[in-house]
Amino acid sequence: xxxxxxxxxxxxxxxxxxxxxxxxxxxxxxxxxxxxxxxxxxxxxxxxxxxxxxxxxxxxxxxxxxxxxxxxxxxxxxxxxxxxxxxxxxxxxxxxxxxxxxxxxxxxxxxxxxxxxxxxxxxxxxxxxxxxxxxxxxxxxxxxxxxxxxxxxxxxxxxxxxxxxxxxxxxxxxxxxxxxxxxxxxxxxxxxxxxxxxxxxxxxxxxxxxxxxxxxxxxxxxxxxxxxxxxxxxxxxxxxxxxxxxxxxxxxxxxxxxxxxxxxxxxxxxxxxxxxxxxxxxxxxxxxxxxxxxxxxxxxxxxxxxxxxxxxxxxxxxxxxxxxxxxxxxxxxxxxxxxxxxxxxxxxxxxxxxxxxxxxxxxxxxxxxxxxxxxxxxxxxxxxxxxxxxxxxxxxxxxxxxxxxxxxxxxxxxxxxxxxxxxxxxxxxxxxxxxxxxxxxxxxxxxxxxxxxxxxxxxxxxxxxxxxxxxxxxxxxxxxxxxxxxxxxxxxxxxxxxxxxxxxxxxxxxxxxxxxxxxxxxxxxxxxxxxxxxxxxxxxxxxxxxxxxxxxxxxxxxxxxxxxxxxxxxxxxxxxxxxxxxxxxxxxxxxxxxxxxxxxxxxxxxxxxxxxxxxxxxxxxxxxxxxxxxxxxxxxxxxxxxxxxxxxxxxxxxxxxxxxxxxxxxxxxxxxxxxxxxxxxxxxxxxxxxxxxxxxxxxxxxxxxxxxxxxxxxxxxxxxxxxxxxxxxxxxxxxxxxxxxxxxxxxxxx
Length: 750
Known about the structure:
It is built from 38 helices and no strands. It is mainly α. Helix 10 packs parallel to helix 13 (215-222) and helix 13 runs antiparallel to helix 14 (225-234).
């Protein structure tokens, strides 16, 4: 490479006052086309020459030539070197096509990317036609060995290997896999793998397929832990070999969510071996994959062992803190428990919490020196007995009731995820503001958009200035993002701020939208679907708008954005379709309930006129007038008539409503509540009246009639409760409940 002639190829990183000028260089002015690979050719030669011209004119050639090595991370010049190296790396990555950039995005430095591309494009794309024909012939020749490895048939494989010892390293498939790759991938016969490994030399064990995967990569991807043990015991170097995409076997195990295999690979990884899959940028990539797989306990162990992984940010802001901020299921799964799940959750104790709570006192805490040792030993013995009994009982209950185990696992995941966030923030404490801000800013924005308030609270506790960060493009604060994405847990943190609320209330984004403009927009579909029915969705949207309207400055309520639209105009425009759907939903519900209420009113009115048993011919009074069952019939029939009539009137008022936006907030839900409640009461008392009639006619002399009548009477009531009562509960809760806004605790946020 011509880099040796560059005047900039020094071993020390010199600070420059032209950093902004370097960052503003237009790569497209030097590199006319992005590096891509076609079936039979590539443009690497011309691309390389153009890229070298760009880098050399900016005196940065030493960064890809290896002549400017990175200084120690603790030195002052490391930040300068890192910025320039990332600048060169960004130029290179920006000049790659999408399919090529995927193979190089996880590499550490600009030099690593350069060498990777040179290796990938300079080498021949494939064997010549004659060699390809011989390769295909070899595959056909070793087809019996392929089938034997696939089935785990060692007898057949042994015969083939005895006749041809070179078959142990032969490519037996079109993807250049060996028999060991096939046997490990199927996982059918561990003895087959063990015997095959014993016959293979070390260099054959390290053979890779066309993707650069050795046998340990395959074991990691498929979760074949037993085969992984055999391979590591034979050749530990397999742990430190990368695939063509720059991934170690541990990365493949994490990406495939193979927990046991991942634990095995990490436990055998040595700290003093380079390249280390758990350290540096490789460690961050591995940590991110572990977080994606929900293995938060393993992530905690990895961060504790390699604290620097919390302080490194991969390209495109892929830090571990941002990755955990994306794990909505780990945090919001507990928040979305229903009533019974919350009750069970409060009864289920985590093992780690139980251990802390039952830890015995220190010997020094026992005051009596004469019997202190005996009491301590006795307490330790009983402590172990009680703790083991507690854990055994919890384990048995979780096995008998699978739902309890699910709730327990969600609580454990939430606890571990929160501890991981705290651990990451703790290890970021040694960074200065310039280094830490890009990492926690991305995490804060992500958490605000997803709705994970715990992540924001932990970050702000560790870095108080993080609360003032804004999105780089849209200029949104986290509370703007919370209102836009309807994340009430995050938005409620604004009530715990000490005295800087005004800057969030009056701030505008890059489009001139205020906080009220964002609340006036339509909620994301997945947030709308959390509420049943279009009318209640419209009500929730109005509640958000009214809540933010109370918070902002009076002038802000009418302030237009850069498009000239006020918040009210935005709300009307954005919710036009939802308003129509809400009106249709409300009318359909009212129509259905109106028919039911009218039928009940008709039936119970007729029953009041033609009383059971008839009337006396002389006085006209009912025959069963003095019977207690008749009194029950009369009262129940009257209550059913009045409530069904009330329900009918309520639903009729819904049908004739004007359906203005404001009506969805309180008026229409209130009428729906009254209508559904009175309809339920009318059905209940109609059933009681009918049961009393049956008893009067058939049950005075046959007491056994009471039981089947009572049982059958419960059928319509229970059906209504199961089918319609949840809707009534939702309407009452959303209209008269405590709401979703307000302080989450009495502590100040910052």
